[in-house]
Design brief:
- The protein has 169 residues and is of the alpha/beta class.
- It has 2 domains: 8-24 and 116-166, no CATH class; 28-91, no CATH class.
- The protein has helices at 8-11, 45-54, 77-87, 99-112, 136-146, and strands at 15-17, 28-32, 64-68, 93-96, 123-127, 152-157, 160-166.
- The strands form 2 sheets. Strands 1-5-6-7 form a 4-stranded mixed sheet, covered by helices on one side. It has a 3-stranded parallel sheet with strand order 2-3-4, sandwiched between helices.
- β6 (152-157) and β7 (160-166) form a beta hairpin.
- α2 (45-54) packs parallel to α3 (77-87) and α4 runs parallel beside α5 (136-146).
- The chain is elongated.
- 15% of the residues are buried.
Amino acid sequence: MAKEIVNRVASSTLQVIDLEEFYPEGIRTILSITDFLDEGVVLREQSFRERLQSHDWTSYKNHYVAVHCPEDVLVPQWATLLLIRYLQPVTKAVVVGTKDDLERFLFTEKLALFDAAPYQNGLVMIKGCANKPVPQQAMGILAAKLIPVVRKLSYGEACSSVPLYSKPK
């Protein structure tokens, strides 16, 4: 007689949090400030302002935008802020930096709203594998919110997890 196979993970009280579920869907766009500079490197205020005014900002409607300035290009801080002035009304979000900075910002915003109360004294695992980009910072933010409330916290997959925290007895 064959022994019945029991899915112990499905019947456990383990609560799995998949950070991929916090991923804000939408188009990500990197906009370089060099696109608005003379010869891509020189900022002349009048021509910079004219390029900004004549640009079609509606093409960024509902995008998540990172305004990037390469390290080898020096522009005053106000130039980036002026660019944001045009982007802010049409985008879902705009940050100064790289695509990675944008992803960190988006996850930080989402996780600021995360309520850890339902995980009080629970056995919780932060899911390890993801198909979408999940910044390391997001995992840190989530762990910091969970540690004060959970009984146990682990990371990975149910079949091979790494224990991170156990509440002292």
